[in-house]
Amino acid sequence: MSEGYLPYAADAEQSLSPEELLVLRRQYEREGPQVRVQTKFNYAWGLIKSTKKAEQQMGVYLMHEIYSEHNERKRECLYYLGIGYYKMGEYGNARVYTEQLLALEPDNKQAKCLRELIDARVSRDGMIGLAVSGGAIALLGIAAAAIFKRSK
C-alpha cells in the first residue's frame, strides 16, 4: 500500500486475482441475456478493480448500463464509475462522478477519500508534467546556446 493510503477508497488500490475475476465472469456469462443486476454489478466491479485497462473499460461500460437502467443502484454506480475512471487515469471523469455522489451524500467517506486520491494524483501528475516540460525547455536552451556559440 502507498504511504498516503486512504482506507475508505481501498477499491482504487486493490484488485482481484485472475481466478476471482474468472468466477464473476462465469456467473455473468452463465446468466446470459437475462443477467441479474447484482451479477452484472459484481462483474463490473471486478473488472473495474482489474489492473488491465481493457477490463477496466469494460467494467466502466457495464457500470454505466446499470447506472442508466437501475435507479436503486445509482449511489454505488457513481462511486465505482469514479474508481474506474481514476484507475484508467481519466481524472476529470473520475472527479465528475465523485462530485455527483458527494452532491447526493455530502458526508460519504468513500467519496471524500476518492476525491483526495484524485486531487493528489492530478497534483502529482501535474508536477511531473511541469518537470518534464522544464527539462525539455532547458535542453532546448542548452542546444540553442551551443549552436549560437559555434556560429561565432
Protein described:
By secondary structure, the chain is mostly helical. It is 75% helix and 0% strand. It is built from 6 helices and no strands. Helix 4 (74-87) runs antiparallel to helix 5 (91-104).
Mean model confidence by pLDDT:
83
Q: How far from one another are the termini?
A: 56 Å
Shape: globular
Specify the number of helices: 6
Spans of at least 5 consecutive residues whose pLDDT stays below 50 are 1-7, 127-136
Helix percent reads over 70%
Backbone CA Rg: 21 Å
Major sheet details: none
| Element-by-element helix/strand order | HHHHHH
Strand-residue proportion: under 5%
What structural class do you assign from the helix and strand content?
mainly alpha
Number of strands: 0
Keyword list:
single chain; 152 residues; mainly alpha; 6 helices; disordered N terminus
Q: What's the SSE blueprint?
A:
Layout: H1 18-31, H2 37-48, H3 53-69, H4 74-87, H5 91-104, H6 109-151
Helix pairs in contact: 1-2, 2-3, 3-4, 4-5, 4-6, 5-6
Provide a compact summary of the structure.
This protein has 152 residues and is an all-alpha fold.
